[in-house]
Amino acid sequence: MARLNDKNNSGDKDAAEKTPGDSHSFSWDDHFFGSVTIGERGQVVIPAEARKRFHLEPGDRLLVMGDPGKRSIMLCRIDTLREFMNAFQEGLAQAEQDMTIAAVAADASPDSTDDPTHSTKP
Question: Is the model's pTM score more than 0.90?
């Protein structure tokens, strides 16, 4: 499949040689790999460029997940999803700890006990 952004119109070689996904801006060309057809046995072929970009090899295990509206599916590496979930759980635990510390600090604040008209508690 030909890439739409292979040639940089500005002539900037460094920009043209960037690895897709280096920038935080969205580029359609970095995320669209073509279309596939479901075969008689329900199989699809992942386009070669996508397999190369995401280092997918024969035998790799992928999860097939559906959106809540039952209109789309997504393929995801099991190990990548596990890493994401672990990072998400660590972030959630840190956020809960930060909220607890902030609540304890607010309760211990002299402002919350000296003047009942300015209480932060209901």
Answer: no
